[in-house]
Amino acid sequence: MGRSYLGEFEELVLLTVAVLEGTAYGVTIAAELKQRMNNRLISLSGVHIALYRLEEKGFVVSELGGATSERGGRRKRFFRITALGKRTLAEMRQVRNELWDAIPNPSFS
Amino acid sequence: MEKQPSPPRWADRFLGWLLPSELYEELLGDLHEQFAFQAEELGAQRARWMYFFEVLRFCRPYFLRRRFSAHSKYSTSYTYSPAMIRNYFIIAWRNILKNKAFSVINITGLSIGLTCSLLIYLWVKDELQIDTFHERGDRIYTVTSKEFIDGKATGYYDTPGLLGEELKRTIPEVELSCNWSGDEARTFAVKDKKLKFIGGYSGEDFFKIFSYPFLQGTVNESLKTRESISISEKMAIALFGSAEKAINQSIKFDNYKDLTIKAVYANMPESSSLKLDYLISWELFKEREPWVYDWDNSGPGAFVLLKKNADEAKVNAKLKHFIGKFSKGYKTENNHLELGIQPFKETYLNSRFENGETAGGRIDYVKLFTVVAIIILLIACINFMNLSIAQSLKRAKEIGVRKAIGAEKSSLVGQFMGEAFMFSVIALFFALTAAGFILPSFNSFTNKQIALPYHEPSFWLFIFGLLLLVGLLSGLYPSLFLTAFRPIAVLKNNLKVNQNSISLRKGLVIFQFTLSTVFIIGTLIISKQINFIHSKNIGYEKQNLIYLPVTGTLSKQFEVFENELKKIDGVESLSKISNQFISNDNTTGSVEWQGKNPNSSPNFNPIAVEYNFVNTMKATLLQGRDFSREFADSTSYIINEAALKIIGYKSPIGMPLTFWGKTGQIIGVVKDFHFNSMLMPIEPMIIRHSNKLSHGYCLIRIEGERTQEALNGIETIHKKLNPDFPFTYKFVEAEFENLYKTESLVKSLSIIFAILAIAISCLGLLGLVMFVTEQRTKEIGIRKVLGATVTNIWTLILKDFAVLVIVSCLIAAPIAYYFMNNWLQKYSYRTEINWWIFVAAGAGALVTTLLTVSFQTIKAALMNPVKSLKSE
Question: Closest residue of B to A68, CA-based?
Answer without folding.
Answer: B29
